[in-house]
Amino acid sequence: MERTPSLHAAVLIERRRQPNRWEAWGFRIADVLLDEGLFGEAPRQLRDDGHLAQFLFPGLTVSLHRDEAEGYYLNLTSGAPVWFVMWRCSDADPSQAWPEMVTLSYNEAGRLLDAQERVDNVPLPADVTAWLQAYTDAHYRPEPKQRRRPASFRAPERR
């Protein structure tokens, strides 16, 4: 049985008080860091000056799967590979937000967006890009292109 390649990440979320006149709170994914066990296991607040706050959420697992190889390929060939972070806000307390998952698959991020989830992206560091490229090179095989005959060359009953 083959082991699923994975790594651990920590997500840094920034919260801004009243970023505009229509919102009480604004959030953005500030960074995604490799988590090598130095950040602990529990989320924590790093700073809060009343206007800007930063929260670190460690321990998110990013796994690579063969059936997502096309999504990894699309991420890598986009020109600027990224982490995709799906995050949520609390309905009970709109000042709270947290990351639910981190992925490297363009297709998976698209499915999450289609499901009306919040997905932001952050640039991927060179070492993770190289790791993802090696996996994609080993597991992604593009489907062969098939020439489609123009309808005008088909028999009328087959159009």
UniProtKB/TrEMBL annotation:
Its source organism is: Aquincola agrisoli
Q: Which domain of life does this protein belong to?
A: Bacteria
Which protein are we looking at?
DUF3305 domain-containing protein
